[in-house]
Structure formats: structure tokens, C-alpha cells
Amino acid sequence: MCRHVAYVGPAVPLGRLLVEPPHGLYRQSWAPRHQQYGTVNADGFGVGWYAEGDPVPARYRRAGPVWADLSFADLARVVKSTALLAAVRDATLSGADAEAAAAPFAAGAWLFSHNGAVRGWPGSLATVSRTLPHEDLLSLEARNDSALVWALVLARLRSGDEEGQAMADTVLEVAAAAPGSRLNLLLTNGDTITATAWGDTLWYLTRPGGGTVVASEPYDDDPHWREVPDRTLLAASRTDVLLTPLKEPSDASVPSPSPKEPRT
């Protein structure tokens, strides 16, 4: 389990979104308000962001709790970016992969996080994992469910699928193989945000000064936060958010590209 957040918009210091808000991700590491599974996110954290003129994001990840990192708040105070993805982790199962198991995972211009858990891991995804190229399996960054879910999304992206299609298809595939899984996925390429609400909370905010935030839970009490319904695919730019219903695997269809709710 974890909490995560993504942002695209005008350049802001990382700390403006992660540390300064009264209920920001920093505080959510020990006092989340909407977390339904687990209470403390102390098993690692990470943030990825984009520097001007460089499409490949930088990452800062650690294995321990964010509040124990004496450098993070100072780094977040001065580093500015037009896009970020960050997460604090409550491990589903203990493991030895240290910061490699902490989101965000990355490839090329993409940053990815998984909030939730795959039920019956690892056995439940044994068959699904065989659809991946052997090289992808052998190069998994960590031995946890999130890393494999990311590999499934990434394989679809590399095959040419659009981000929303890759995320939706992966959620339906994993949910079919492991019913009862919680699959809130979060992806950014530095310009857009794609997310799924599947088994846990997801919210978004279009900021008055410009920019869009997508998060597990609101970082303040701004009344403009909107909750995303469960079983929903979200696609966001700096100005717009589109919501599309996701059907259960038994419904045997992938969501249509038409939006459920446009917001500006």
C-alpha cells in the first residue's frame, strides 16, 4: 500500500506540493486521512521530476521513511519542475530490494507508481508474467507486485499502445488473474497524467493558477478537489481532466475513448 501524487503545470518547487501543504505527501507518510489499508507509509519513498530541456526525469528514492531523510525537505525546497510523480510506501510484503522497490519506477520519459496490492502475489500472476519478453522479466527492478505491474504497462507502451489503453488493459488483465486486487496506477510523461482508480481512493485538483494534481488523497482542504469514482481511468493535461469508466474483466470490453466527465 502507499500514497502517491502527480503534477503537471507551471514550474513550482517540489516542496510546494509535497512538504508545505498541511496534509501533503510528506505528512501522509505517517498520518494519511483517506488510507483504507495500512496506517503508516514508512517502507520507502521516492520522487521523480523533469528538468527544463531534458525529457528523461531525475529520481530521488530511499528505502526508509521520508521523515527520516534529513536532506529531502531541503532538496524539495529549491528544486523546481513543471511535472513530478512522488510516492510513500507501505510494503505489501517485506523484501530485500531496498530503494529499488520504491516508486516511482522509470523508463525513458515515463514515471510510474502503483498504489495497492496484487492479491495472491506472486503466484496469481505467474501465468500473466509469461506474456512478457524474457529480457523484461530478468531486468525487473524489484521483486514486488508493483514492479511486475509496471513491466506489463511498459511492454504495452513500447508496443505502441497509448498510455490510457496500456493502463486500462493492464488493470483488466491483472484483475482477471488476481480478483480482489487493488490497482490504482499513476503514470506521467512530463506533459500528461494517466491514472486508474481500482480499489482505493483517487482525487484530482485543477489549480486556479494553472496545473493539475492527481493524488491518492487531497493535500489540503481546498473545496475544488474532486474524487474519482472507483473503476475509472483518468487522463489529465495541465488544463483538462477526462474520466472514463473501467469495466470489470467479466464484462469483456475495454473502456471506450469517450470521456465520462470533462473538466477545465
Protein architecture, described:
This protein has 264 residues and is α+β, with helices and mostly antiparallel strands. It has a single domain (2-257), classed as Glutamine Phosphoribosylpyrophosphate, subunit 1, domain 1, CATH 3.60.20.10. Helices cover 20% and strands 30% of the residues. The strands form 2 sheets. The chain has a 7-stranded antiparallel β-sheet. A hairpin with a 2-residue loop joins strand 5 (105-107) and strand 6. Helix 6 crosses helix 7 (163-177). The longest helix is centred in the middle third of the chain and has 15 residues, at 163-177. It is globular and about 45 Å long.
Strand percentage lies at: 25-35%
Q: How many independent structural domains?
A: 1
Spatial extent as radius of gyration = 17 Å
Spatial gap, N to C terminus? 31 Å
Proportion of residues in helical segments:
10-25%
Reported by name, the CATH topology is Glutamine Phosphoribosylpyrophosphate, subunit 1, domain 1
Are there runs of 5+ residues with pLDDT below 50, and where?
251-264
Q: Which structural class is indicated by helix and strand composition?
A: alpha+beta
Largest sheet: 7 strands, antiparallel
Spell out the helices and strands N to C.
Answer: EHHEEHEEEHHHHEEEEEEEE
CATH structural architecture: 4-Layer Sandwich
Shape: globular
Average pLDDT across residues? 91
Identify the CATH class.
Alpha Beta
- Strand order, biggest sheet? 3-2-4-1-10-9-11
Number of strands: 14
Number of helices: 7
By CATH, the superfamily comes out as: Aminohydrolase, N-terminal nucleophile (Ntn) domain
Keywords: Glutamine amidotransferase, Hydrolase, Transferase
Protein name: Gamma-glutamyl-hercynylcysteine sulfoxide hydrolase
Enzyme class: hydrolase
Function: Catalyzes the hydrolysis of the gamma-glutamyl amide bond of hercynyl-gamma-L-glutamyl-L-cysteine sulfoxide to produce hercynylcysteine sulfoxide, a step in the biosynthesis pathway of ergothioneine.
